[in-house]
Amino acid sequence: MSVPADAPILTSSAMRDAEAACAASGTSLSELMDRAGAAVADIAWRMAAGAPVLILCGPGNNGGDGYVAARLLRERGANVRVAALAPPTTDLAKAARAKWAGAVEPIDETLAPAPVAVDALFGVGLTRPLAAELAGRLRALAVRRVIAVDVPSGVDADGEHDWAPPLPAHVTVALGALKRAHVLLPAAQHCGRVLLAGIGIVCDATIRTLPRPPAPLPGVTSHKFSRGMMLVRAGPMPGAAALAAAAGLRAGAGYAVLSGADTAPLSAIIAEDGDHYPARLGDKRVGAVVIGPGYPAGMALDRDVASAIDSARPLVLDAAAIDAALPRLRGGGLTAILTPHEGEFVRAFPGAEGGKIDRALAAAAETGSVVIYKGADTVIAAPDGRVAAAWPGSPWLATAGTGDVLAGACGAMLSRGGDPFDAAVQAAAWHIARAAHIGPGLVADDLVGE
């Protein structure tokens, strides 16, 4: 499964607005449909490799895209059939159907399957799950490969409802922009590989997919402090903080201090007892403080978090440290990155509603902080409304300690100064790329090894 890097993500309503704006600027909706159908036809031609193709058309504009694709495939000499749920109901779809010179079969029990099926039934227009009878018919039609137009039929394009599609796609051709369903579970797992077809719609979206992992090189005048000095506060389980400190150096920090630990995992990390913690917080060279990994809730954590907040240093807050900091974060004025997983997020923000992107945005606005809402479909949200969706991540990250590594990487990126949202995005990209490189058998220590 994959999605394009740094690609725009729109809701269904925002997509309609973008199409209308495009039409108002001189590109007709008919031209957009022709471009969409051509993109689908090109993918189907390559995937079919001469095998028969069955295009399933709905009554709306998604079906119109299917009729265009069928016509273009036939012009190329493909063995293509068309089946429809009902006659077209929109002017665009009617015009596209009129240009299809072949037969249109009904989608019923008599419809024969094909090796490649193109799902152009509903797209982003679906507002409810498919009826069980129709879903059963569709399941019998795909033999080898399914190509979905925009989103698989039966999927909520905005990713808020868990509607399992009867035809999970092997490839989804996203038209103009990605939709939230392409990057949020549970829908994303049904979309297969997502290909973005640029059909000429301009999308100035604040919600995008994760960019490619950065590879910044130190400048010729860089030194260890200009590359970023980070302070990691260890708790009763210092191994987690040690992972965070080592990750900080591997992710590019120039200097790492592990406070409250007797030993460090790397000789380059400064390990010192907890009595030095207040003095370290006063060191103006410290660019970021990481606290929370391996540090359970309690008075000691509350005290150390309060000291970190009072120091006015940029913060990376993980696990129980998020709860400890919330009363002060809600007042605003702090630079912080929060890294909750699902359970921690629900505990910290029990009133958040909507899909994962909406909940992450609400938490970021409430705290004035960047929120990395972790999971297989990680979402990174900033208080100003920017979002990066990190789907797909790496399944090998589903093991203990990898969240501590991510916190350390955030500390490294944040310690250099600059925008905390950019720091969080870079850290997530580094984390996923590192895991993908290591692959099967990954343990958290591997992420900070050679």
TrEMBL record:
<keyword id="KW-0479">Metal-binding</keyword>
<dbReference type="InterPro" id="IPR004443">
    <property type="entry name" value="YjeF_N_dom"/>
</dbReference>
<comment type="similarity">
    <text>Belongs to the NnrE/AIBP family.</text>
</comment>
<feature type="binding site">
    <location>
        <position position="150"/>
    </location>
    <ligand>
        <name>(6S)-NADPHX</name>
    </ligand>
</feature>
<feature type="binding site">
    <location>
        <position position="119"/>
    </location>
    <ligand>
        <name>K(+)</name>
    </ligand>
</feature>
<feature type="binding site">
    <location>
        <begin position="61"/>
        <end position="65"/>
    </location>
    <ligand>
        <name>(6S)-NADPHX</name>
    </ligand>
</feature>
<dbReference type="InterPro" id="IPR000631">
    <property type="entry name" value="CARKD"/>
</dbReference>
<comment type="similarity">
    <text>In the C-terminal section; belongs to the NnrD/CARKD family.</text>
</comment>
<keyword id="KW-0630">Potassium</keyword>
<keyword id="KW-0547">Nucleotide-binding</keyword>
<keyword id="KW-0521">NADP</keyword>
<comment type="function">
    <text>Catalyzes the epimerization of the S- and R-forms of NAD(P)HX, a damaged form of NAD(P)H that is a result of enzymatic or heat-dependent hydration. This is a prerequisite for the S-specific NAD(P)H-hydrate dehydratase to allow the repair of both epimers of NAD(P)HX.</text>
</comment>
<feature type="binding site">
    <location>
        <position position="62"/>
    </location>
    <ligand>
        <name>K(+)</name>
    </ligand>
</feature>
<dbReference type="Pfam" id="PF03853">
    <property type="entry name" value="YjeF_N"/>
</dbReference>
<feature type="domain" description="YjeF N-terminal">
    <location>
        <begin position="15"/>
        <end position="207"/>
    </location>
</feature>
<dbReference type="InterPro" id="IPR036652">
    <property type="entry name" value="YjeF_N_dom_sf"/>
</dbReference>
<feature type="domain" description="YjeF C-terminal">
    <location>
        <begin position="207"/>
        <end position="450"/>
    </location>
</feature>
<dbReference type="InterPro" id="IPR030677">
    <property type="entry name" value="Nnr"/>
</dbReference>
<keyword id="KW-0067">ATP-binding</keyword>
<protein>
    <recommendedName>
        <fullName>NAD(P)H-hydrate epimerase</fullName>
        <ecNumber>5.1.99.6</ecNumber>
    </recommendedName>
</protein>
<dbReference type="InterPro" id="IPR029056">
    <property type="entry name" value="Ribokinase-like"/>
</dbReference>
<dbReference type="Pfam" id="PF01256">
    <property type="entry name" value="Carb_kinase"/>
</dbReference>
<comment type="function">
    <text>Bifunctional enzyme that catalyzes the epimerization of the S- and R-forms of NAD(P)HX and the dehydration of the S-form of NAD(P)HX at the expense of ADP, which is converted to AMP. This allows the repair of both epimers of NAD(P)HX, a damaged form of NAD(P)H that is a result of enzymatic or heat-dependent hydration.</text>
</comment>
<keyword id="KW-0413">Isomerase</keyword>
<keyword id="KW-0520">NAD</keyword>
<feature type="binding site">
    <location>
        <begin position="123"/>
        <end position="129"/>
    </location>
    <ligand>
        <name>(6S)-NADPHX</name>
    </ligand>
</feature>
<keyword id="KW-0456">Lyase</keyword>
<keyword id="KW-0511">Multifunctional enzyme</keyword>
<feature type="binding site">
    <location>
        <position position="153"/>
    </location>
    <ligand>
        <name>K(+)</name>
    </ligand>
</feature>
